[in-house]
Amino acid sequence: MSTVAPLAGMPTVDVAVQSAIDAIDDSFLVLDADDRLVAFNAGALRAFPHLEPELVAGARFQELIRRDAEVLHERGMIDDVERAVADRMRRHALPNSSYESRQPDGRWFRSEDRPMAGGGRVVITRDITDERRHAEEAARYTKLLRGTLENISQGLCAFDAAYRLMTWNAQLFELLDLPHTFAQVGTPMIDMIRFLARRGDLGPGDVGELTEEVYRMSTQTRGTIYERRDTRGRTLEIRLRPLSDGGLVATYSDVTDRHKVLTALRESEERYALAAAGANDGLWDWNLGSNRIFFSDRWKEMLGFAADEISDGAEEWFSRIHPEDVQRVTAQIDAHLSGAAANFESEHRVRHFDDSYRWMLVRGLAVRDSDGNAYRIAGSMTDITERKRSEEQAIHDALHDSLTSLANRTLFLERVRQALARQRRTPSAQFAVIYLDLDRFKVVNESLGHVHGDDLIIAAARRLEQNLKFGDTVARLGGDEFAIMLEDVRDKEDATGLSDMLQKALSTPFMLGGKEVFTTASMGIAHSAENYVRPEDILRDAELAMYRAKELGKARSVAFDPAMRGTTVTPLDVETDLRRALERHEMVLNYQPIVSLSDGRIRGFEALARWHHAERGDIPPSEFIPLAEETGMIVELGQWVLRNACAQMVEWNRDFTDQGPFEISVNLSGRQFTQLDLVRMVTNSLEGTGLQANCLKLEITESALMENAQRSAQMLRHLKELDIKVCVDDFGTGYSSLSYLHTFPIDTLKIDKSFVQDMGRNRHNLEIVRTIALLAQNLRLDVIAEGVETPEQLAQLRAIGCGYAQGFLFSRPLTTENVRRLLAENRVW
After folding, report:
1. Are the CB atoms for 719 and 693 separated by under 8 Å?
2. Do 21 and 157 have their domain in common?
3. Which domain, by its residues, includes 730?
4. Does residue 557 contact residue 568 with C-beta atoms inside 8 Å?
């Protein structure tokens, strides 16, 4: 013990004793009757190193406590120094006290105050840090274990070697509906069993005998699993497991739902057996020991055999399985018999009596002995031939174009993907992709109708197929666009030569509806030497090259050049700009005069939309009108044309009353003509501009009218009720509709310029014009001939009685300013 300056009455301590006390881990503080420090050992310095300056003879114990509290407060371990000192001194004043505290360095100590016989006190302090840590870990483990027990779905309890209750969870009392008076450590297991027996949970019988029987089974078990039903109709699964040092653990599970499922499964299997027989499925039962198979009569009948024409040998089945399927079927059976697969199910082909193969769905389930070895397998056979055909057709349809039966975009891109993979493995295996678009297809489609348009697509597809070598792929991407993959193409020049061959094949006229139809194609070529990674990229570049071919005048092939990616104008570019053209006031109307051939004066105008693009200049109607049709923009564009044309005509009729009133002709596309609100749109334009209805003439193509003749007649009647005039545009180029013509309430026939321009060279065309004019006269209709360019054509038209004409002979389409100048001249032709 470290002895401070001796105080009165303190004996001198032997050095050996002092050394022994200093070696003790515990801290000793000796206080006199005035609560002053008399002596302490080295353990005190180890326990309270922060008090070393204060540990001097005569130090008051309260001051030591205060300094200790101040250090704790400085380190944020306590909030109130005075309260801590008061609490400690209160305990110190007790005859005997024990308390725990935490030191500034994080250690925990337990201090005990004891009075001494001769007066004064001794304070002994012990480091209990490890003890507290172990206690906390034990508490956490106990809490975790208790939480686990309370969260499992089973009820659980454990009994000691004397079969008294040691632990349990709440689920046990809920499942067994036990009173909570049993929820006490030490409850005898036999008392709990007796309670269940009295309530009837253990079944009928004497309570005492049932109690003894269950108690004996439980205490003598080496591991038991059994089920029983309780008085509430539930089925409980009970598992008993002995503990190594005596006692046991019991778990209780509610398996009522599982029993219901198993019962339902058995009933389902019975229903399936009945349904299989009723559905005429074939049944089979294979004895694996004898290798004999029972085949039902229906099984044999499904393959075209009589009941006595097939034996019970296993070869009767396996010898009829398609050679490509037999190995797979055998492996599937082996997998089930070995236990690797829960059941046997196989779709495979089986040879019929007529030597054709039928697709069969065969299912089976093995029966096993107590060791799990299969000794029998039985099942059914269902004919799924039609389903397989439907699936194959669905797969084919998903990868092929419905009109031409060519590959579609999905299949084409997959073929290109495979070709790219081959080229990566074998760099010399190069190929090319051609993007092909039929020129003037829209003209054919509108002139001859969609049926003949489809015929042209089909005929073009066949020609492309006929001119490709084995291994090449041709696909229809949609509309009049095709894609071709040419295998084993050395370079772009080689691909260009092949595309020229395809161009030549397509240039031969097609016979559609008794007419010769000529078409060409614009083709873009992309070669795999550009090191493509994705199939979409090479197709994209071929498409860009195709658009460049169209820009250069169509009917040609162009090989892709990387510079095209920034310069080629695609339909998407045009579509994007078209949607903004009206907002940017890039659209304007030009007007071509329509002249009366009886007096040579202007009687009206045809309104024609023109697009003055801010960057690309004038874009012809042949480019933006078809695109407007496809995107639906034609409806908005048509409304703009109609309203502005009506407004302009009001102005000219007001300013040139001596020559008017003039009529304005506005073209309606097929898509506009099918709009349900067409009549309302026309009415709004007339009312909004103030134009008289009889000054408006709507031009509709023959093909658009005949698309749905009955609906067209109804729409025309609505327009006529408003006093609006209707003109059949491009008459003679579409359907042979003479039988319908008299049913349509129309006013005018416009003869297509293709007939007018060839009248002088082709007598056949002259007769067509003459016939149309005569037909119109008989039906009391006006006739307009368009495309008049020469005085000779004008003379011929007057000679055959044509009423009106328009064309470059009179004037090209004019701006509004130039129309005013023309009207001011008051010309006569």
Report:
1. no
2. no
3. 577-825
4. no
Question: Which pairing describes strands 235-242 and 248-254: parallel, antiparallel, or unpaired?
Answer: antiparallel
CB atoms within 10 A of CB 637: 22
Torsion of CA 265, 271, 272, 276, to 10 degrees: 170
How far does CA 548 lie from the centroid of its chain? 36
SS3 729: strand
731-789: pLDDT as tens digits? 876 554 565 677 789 999 999 888 898 787 778 788 889 988 988 888 899 999 999 99
pLDDT tens-place string over residues 40-55 = 888 888 888 888 898 8
Sign of CA dihedral 198, 201, 205, 210: negative
502 in a structural domain: yes
Task: Answer for the pair 823, 602: CB distance below 8 angstroms, yes or no.
Answer: yes
Q: Specify the 3-state DSSP secondary structure of 115.
A: strand
Q: What is the pLDDT of residues 652-707, one digit of tens each?
A: 999 999 998 999 999 998 888 888 889 999 999 999 999 999 999 999 988 788 77
Q: Which of 23, 24, 38 is nearest to 116 (CA)?
A: 38
The token duo for 363 is 């299912």
Residue 146 in any domain: the answer is no
| Residue 311 CA from chain centroid, whole number | 52
pTM over 0.85: no
Do the Cβ atoms of 454 and 521 come closer than 8 Å? no
In a domain, 739, yes or no: yes
74: in domain = yes
CA–CA distances in Å: residue 120 to residues 28, 36, 64, 526: 13, 9, 16, 108
What are the residues whose beta carbons fall under 8 Å from the beta carbon of 367, sequence distance 6 or more?
374, 375, 376, 377, 378
Token pair recorded at residue 314 = 């296993």
746 by Cβ neighbours in 10 Å (0-12 / 13-18 / 19+) ranks as buried
Count CB neighbours of 246 within 10 A. Answer: 12
User: Which residues make beta-bridge pairs with 459?
Assistant: none
Cα gap 481→471, rounded to integer Å: 21
One domain, residues 549 and 612: no
